[in-house]
Amino acid sequence: MFVLEATGPAISQAVERLQRGEFVGLPTETVYGLAADAGNDLAVARIYAAKGRPTFNPLIAHVSSLDMAMLEAVLDERAQRLVARFWPGPLTLVLPLAGSHRVCELARAGLQSVALRMPGHPVALELIRAFGGPLAAPSANRSGRISPTTAQDVVAELGDQPGLVLDAGPARVGLESTIVAVLPGEPVRLLRPGGVSREALQGVVGELAVSPAERIEAPGQLASHYAPHARLRMNALTPEPGEAFLGFGLHHREGSPNLSRAGDLVEAAANLFTMLRRLDASGVAAIAVAPVPEHGLGEAINDRLRRAAAPR
Ligand code: TXA
Ligand code: MG
After folding, report:
1. Fewer CB within 10 Å, N side or C side of the chain?
2. In terms of C-beta density within 10 A (0-12 exposed, 13-18 middle, 19 or more buried), how is residue 57 classed?
3. Whose CA is nearest to atom 6 of ligand 1?
4. Whether the CB of 92 sits within 6 Å of ligand 1
């Protein structure tokens, strides 16, 4: 893939490519996505092929307005409250499909629900608006690998693929959106922790149900997702011989990266994938990661670390 700074002409070029059924590397505030026309099965199939992703894994459709969202899905009163509070931003809602939907069956992996998100990034919003319809966009990494937070990461993952990556600098949030299901006759369920914390969601819709079906319904939740090449050990106070160290707060080693010296979980989330990727690229066999507290964005950070640490 090749990189262009996300200026007006580059965005116009991206729109033409999307219209031809090609995919485009898309900056969002969470991670970089691999975007294509969500209504075009062939374009969506090209995403799955490029990622090497199992085709039963449904994709998020990205919208630029509430009107566009309401053509795709049914938003009940709870969904509308969530959207009013968190869109544009790192929250994805799994909703019942509307009769007027454009999102194709392949992008939904055959489900009668659809995952929608309005990204909090001016380039993403401008591209969707200019294209005029929803864009299916999974994270722009090979299936099961670390999500990209810069345009250069996208090239590192998918460099052998054709296509344009719009470069808008590093992703601000640095980990994927939170996914909640808001479906009729059931409580709001957290399917994937992410850029909006559980506490922030509960402030709007009250207690969240934990989904026993979560692993089936959000198959991106496969145990060994986000795997670096190196082995990973969590809650490490000091590295063992042969391990590289990734610090957090006061658990710091001179000369080793630190997710956040100040112990700030938002800063840590933004640094997580970049630092893992850099340590991995240095060729170490094992990475020891300092303890990260389980509150706020710490829940999502630990979720990603657990997947990276899972046996494979
Ligand atoms: O931050 C993000 O969400 C990024 C950026 C690019 O927007 N996108 C992203 O997409 O992380 P992806 O495809 O890597 O993850 C989508 C997740 C998967 O775990 C998938 O299984 C779940 O969303 N999903 C999509 N549609 C669903 C549905 N109808 N029901 C349940 N889960 C769904
Ligand atoms: Mg992903």
Report:
1. C
2. middle
3. 33
4. yes
